[in-house]
Amino acid sequence: MDIKTSCLGVLALRPASGYEIRKAFEEGPFSHFAEGGFGSIYPALSKLTGEGLVTFEVEAQEKRPDKKIYQITDAGRATLVEKLCEKAPDDDKYKSDLLFILFFAGQLPADRIRNVIDDRIAFYQAKLDHLSECGGAGEGSAPDLVRGFGVTVYSAAMSYLQDHRQDFIKLADDNRPAADAAD
Amino acid sequence: MDIKTSCLGVLALRPASGYEIRKAFEEGPFSHFAEGGFGSIYPALSKLTGEGLVTFEVEAQEKRPDKKIYQITDAGRATLVEKLCEKAPDDDKYKSDLLFILFFAGQLPADRIRNVIDDRIAFYQAKLDHLSECGGAGEGSAPDLVRGFGVTVYSAAMSYLQDHRQDFIKLADDNRPAADAAD
DNA sequence: GACCCCCTATATCGGGCTGATATAGGGTTA
DNA sequence: TAACCCTATATCAGCCCGATATAGGGGGTC
């Protein structure tokens, strides 16, 4: 999904500033399947404004930059629905530095393998806790079902790492017995 | 993982042309966690050659462009290990147009929801079949364990879609009862 | 037999996106 | 009191993606 459509999606839920849109990508209901930094969001909002798909009001703030609250227009909502229907969705993109590292576990020190796996398990746990907390939408709603997808996939990933942690470490150990064998 | 390191990783397994490296990202053992198109791979190989991390030999071919077979050097292998150890790996990136569409299921026609879910279930099935087939590396090896991660996560994703297919369709139906109710 | 699409194979280019940086003041924590 | 993070907007370089160009062989279909 291109960044313009992603912004329209966030604004379809409620009016927001560019900063708040980014938070929706980072921590909000879109956090496990969408992305976007300031470098993409601000230009996207400018274009959307030019196309009449969003409008904004300036909220003056003291001691910090004025806040631009963007709001989706009727044309914006129509465009969003169009975009969501217009073609087969792109394949999901999954990119993992962790798996790349683990692929070469046999060539790396055991400490390194242990660290990256333990860090990632902690990360998944934090993500899962966070996803459990933000069940803002009603149970059985579309956002809730999409959240459930995230919970399911993260849980499966975390379990796999926990179940095979020792296997990966063993592979590294076997190749570099010099590294400390303690765990 | 930047594209240069990704190429080094592929070449660490065996010598390959740019074209073959891309296939490794698309269909090979890296296909479920790495990416890279020609527009990234060819420039990356040029840079790696300049840095002495890979070398290449030209294999003349009739009736089609000569094939450049790239091979990793000792310096290349050392650099790869360095890169894989140098810092905490980036978080996994997951981007899904499908989940974005499903998030707005309530605003979309039921046919659309049904189509995208069914297509994706078929896609996951194909991916799983493919992952099962390419167990080239020995059982219990690092590549095999990484492959297992992919199988686990894809299976979980597919099951979730199957289990909640009707729920998503229902949400769309409820909002647009005009759409055909048949299934 | 003619047509079309896909496969091998390299390479470039434009446009889009990421991540870092600039600016600015507030609050919080060690 | 220093360091750091939070709100808030904005820009920019560099990297990457996807499309396109080039070129011929093989295979399937009508």
TrEMBL record, chains A, B:
<feature type="domain" description="Transcription regulator PadR N-terminal">
    <location>
        <begin position="8"/>
        <end position="80"/>
    </location>
</feature>
<protein>
    <submittedName>
        <fullName>PadR family transcriptional regulator</fullName>
    </submittedName>
</protein>
<dbReference type="InterPro" id="IPR036390">
    <property type="entry name" value="WH_DNA-bd_sf"/>
</dbReference>
<dbReference type="InterPro" id="IPR036388">
    <property type="entry name" value="WH-like_DNA-bd_sf"/>
</dbReference>
<dbReference type="Pfam" id="PF03551">
    <property type="entry name" value="PadR"/>
</dbReference>
<dbReference type="InterPro" id="IPR005149">
    <property type="entry name" value="Tscrpt_reg_PadR_N"/>
</dbReference>
